[in-house]
Amino acid sequence: MSGRWAAAPLVPSLLKVLLALQCGVVFLQCSATSSMSGDVSALLAFKRAIIDDPHSVLSDWTDADGNACDWHGVICSAPQGSVISLKLSNSSLKGFIAPELGRLSFLQELFLDHNLLFGTIPKQIGSLRNLRFLDLSVNRLTGPIPSELGGLNSVSLIDFHSNGLTGNIPPELGKLQNLVQLRLDRNRLKGSIPGSNTGSYSPTGNIGSTARNGLCPSPRLNVGDFSYNFLVGKIPPCLKYLPRASFQGNCFQDEYSTLQRALQICISGSTGQRGGINGPKHPAHKHERMQQPTWLLVLEIATGVLLVVFVITGIVTASRSCKLKPSIRISSWNRSKSWSDEITVLIDSDMLKSLPKLSRQELEVACEDFSNIIGSSPETVVYKGTMKDGPEVSVISLCAFEGHWTSHHELFYQNKVIDLARLNHENIAKFLGYCRESDPFSRMLVFEYASNGTLFEHLHYGEGAQLSWLRRMKIAIGIAQGLRYLHTELQPPFAISELNSNSVYVTEDFTPKLVDFECWKMMFSKHEKALGHFNSKASFPGHGDSAEDKHADIQGNTYAFGVILLEIISGRLPYCKDKGYLVDWASKFLQQAEEIGKLVDPELSNVRTEDLAVLCSVVSRCIDPDPSKRPSMQIITGVLENGIDLSAAAILKESSLAWAELALAL
User: Cα–Cα distance between 139 and 94 in angstroms, integer?
Assistant: First the structure.
């Protein structure tokens, strides 16, 4: 009895404890709900700032259930937890970066690289104290780098390369003690690299007290790339442990720097700095330069004499070598001793000389200092430019560093230039020239620019009214005629590396132009790209370019043409996560003639059934699983030309039908 009375006072205490625990759980749930609600709001603000989403990657971003953890590209700490990762790389998103992303307080990873984002980097990103990876590379971002990014205490990677960022590098980045990789290359940054010119780098991270400015206090910085900007002055000694290539393509005046920009480009690119990269010029300086020591004058004269001797010797040697059979001997620059590292390759020098060669400087001017990026891939960056004489051009620049560029790459590049230069057809993008320079290292190709975008853009996120049935037929036949030329009229035949609706550009009058911008992928395998290893099999005639391989590539083009025709008919993507592969969906309708009408894009009007029947018969043959049963483009083009009427009478007939439909509707 006494035991019961002793236990009685414990009951209220236990109740209080349970009540406190329950309140704590409710509080945590409310906090989690509040956090998720804030994350959803921030992400929806990001979605509203996107004005174009061609691949519909944000289509499932809705606030119906108030939970963002199942959205594409979003990763949470728990099923209902906070957002810790946002990955939307290579999504072709076009728009701004919403400042509201700074409210994702638990975010650890932000990958928005390889999109079409423009505007400035929001300073609110600097409030993400848990952020470890920040990648905004290969976009169209402009403006300065916010100094507020110095508050990213946890960040280990910052990658802003291949944008149009301007202004100075903020010294606040030196506060980032965990920063391991910093890529600011291929922008329009000016000024000097913030850091001490007296400190030195120590592998243990111990920097002298004089080096406590700018980037010098970053003890873990192992990768830093500042190349291809307009940076001036001298490279801080504390950063000279980085490769020299990390500073090339700037305006440095430093014995450590190599491959810097020409003085004219530096002056034009560094507006706002009096006297260009040399700083202000005062009359006193000019007076001091006139008073040179006698020994210096003698040295200058001797140097001039030696230079003249060398020039004369070079001219004599060149004149003698010109009498020999023209050949180019290319040796590997990586000094490896394998059999393929030293080859003698005979190239028709006259053919090379006959091709139009453009300088990097004139292309840099045409492309507005390479800031007008219209496309990119891991292998290339595509710029739009306007030449001095008026025509608009597309400039394809290979993403290669001189240290990784071997003789095999050079051989492939030169062979490809010669191969592309022989193409001459109305439906093939015209090759206008090439750029091959070593200071700074550049390998580029120049083509005519088709100002009306790609077929992919018109079919999948353009205005459907612009691409009528008649225009689609014109494009389909034009592509077929271009492929017929490449496959059957050229010797040796030519195959497009990756034929799809993105490799078909259209002009203002909707004439299709085939391009082969993806041919450079074969130069590198995916895991070897960073090391610069070359796929040597594809570099030489006879290796990876046999008749069997060429025939397989041509058959692959035929299949791809069938897929493009299905896109033209249906307006559907070749592959969609929700709907699967277009070919699989279309096959069930292609097998029954009465069902082919279900393939047609519902937004289309004035569809001619006879044209549709011809297209579907061609598609069925092109996508045959057995490559040997696919007809040649000679046959396919003949079927399309004979079966689809694009004459003026047909156009007038279609126009009359359209007016009749309009009259009935009224």
Answer: 9
